[in-house]
């Protein structure tokens, strides 16, 4: 399958990557990777476990002491070369991503560029790690703060963004001076391994990046959280697993960064620019077939424009073409697996059973693969599961509200707090509402809020820590205070 599709076939790697070597599992076991658009097996990948992970951690630990000998400028140059290679191989990386993850090729290309932007950004930030000299309480001493790499980083990433979620952890880690052992999602190991191949070609020293693909995620996770050589655990994925990893990390008091589930509301006020609001909600809802933690999960529309909003959004959604991601005609791909299809189906049935109304979609697509039709549902209320639970799929539930206070209360009525959006032309309302929304990120009249230059992250049970931006290095650095007394 890959043979005909990649211009550089050596980007297809199916072994683990430890200490600069491509390795099988000790047991020689492999696991299958599937194309979610067809259900076909597209590769067999080495099934590594806790023992190989321990080896990777030890390699990472040794590599870090070598990496400290590189100047900031040398580290920066290596990261820059990795960025160049990722961009030079954008089409092949996007092909691999579409085949294992399902998103349409244009979106995969966009994600490769987005993922690369974190490498470029942190190549630059690697040169900007500063210390500080503080005022002193006495004449005979000086107080100095230096920043040092926290240590070996254990990273676990999800399948929904198989490149960007990796680069936004590995690039700041390397820039800060840390090495990484990363476990990619079992659904999408091939993108991670191709990235490692390009890092190797860029000259990033052995042991600095280690990739441990494997199906025994809880055992690999236990090794990463229990091993005292690992000083920090960074995770993107479900809140359930994030809590497990935080609890495990507490035993050795590791620093953690958690980017967990979301339940993003889009608040559309009567005074909004309706075209802009429909377009924004559409983009935020259907990106990656709705499988993004900042996807619009609940669309809250004020009563005066409710019917008009529903009919305009429905008309746009009717235009989606569902299909295999490499087909040029497709504008939306499949969900990741059959569990995902079942989960979405259950949430839709619950809402329809309790009186909500379908305006488009609502069905599993017949035939091969894991497709669910792009769907709009209206007239929801707070009793329905869609009001509280994250629907990781192409379903736009539209709720009605009367007043600003009611909309804010509905928006905040969740344990999640990742991203929220609002549409209004009233300047003071945009400030007022932004400040009252209990979320880590708020988009005002804009839903395309992500970039390497902004601090991505949430509050409440959506996690802790921020990725990207000038703050993104902090999670990988320790602050050391040095008190210099008189000689
Ligand atoms: N914030 C986000 O970006 C994401 C949120 N989600 C949310 O989570 C739901 C479930 O998706 P799912 O893929 O199951 O997410 P998970 O949280 O289960 O998976 C994310 C990553 O964690 C790994 N993992 C799973 N269990 C453990 C464990 N006990 N210890 C260590 N690592 C573990 C997975 O490995 P493996 O693949 O090998 O099981 C994968 O690499 C989605 O429907 C969505 O609501 C999901 C993905 C991303
Ligand atoms: O966690 C996710 O679902 C991916 C984040 C997408 C983004 O960075 O915009």
Automatic annotation (TrEMBL):
<feature type="active site">
    <location>
        <position position="259"/>
    </location>
</feature>
<dbReference type="GO" id="GO:0009450">
    <property type="term" value="P:gamma-aminobutyric acid catabolic process"/>
</dbReference>
<dbReference type="InterPro" id="IPR016163">
    <property type="entry name" value="Ald_DH_C"/>
</dbReference>
<dbReference type="Pfam" id="PF00171">
    <property type="entry name" value="Aldedh"/>
</dbReference>
<dbReference type="InterPro" id="IPR016160">
    <property type="entry name" value="Ald_DH_CS_CYS"/>
</dbReference>
<dbReference type="InterPro" id="IPR016162">
    <property type="entry name" value="Ald_DH_N"/>
</dbReference>
<dbReference type="InterPro" id="IPR029510">
    <property type="entry name" value="Ald_DH_CS_GLU"/>
</dbReference>
<dbReference type="InterPro" id="IPR010102">
    <property type="entry name" value="Succ_semiAld_DH"/>
</dbReference>
<dbReference type="InterPro" id="IPR015590">
    <property type="entry name" value="Aldehyde_DH_dom"/>
</dbReference>
<dbReference type="GO" id="GO:0004777">
    <property type="term" value="F:succinate-semialdehyde dehydrogenase (NAD+) activity"/>
</dbReference>
<protein>
    <submittedName>
        <fullName>Succinate-semialdehyde dehydrogenase (NADP(+))</fullName>
    </submittedName>
</protein>
<dbReference type="InterPro" id="IPR016161">
    <property type="entry name" value="Ald_DH/histidinol_DH"/>
</dbReference>
<comment type="similarity">
    <text>Belongs to the aldehyde dehydrogenase family.</text>
</comment>
<dbReference type="InterPro" id="IPR050740">
    <property type="entry name" value="Aldehyde_DH_Superfamily"/>
</dbReference>
<feature type="domain" description="Aldehyde dehydrogenase">
    <location>
        <begin position="22"/>
        <end position="482"/>
    </location>
</feature>
<keyword id="KW-0560">Oxidoreductase</keyword>
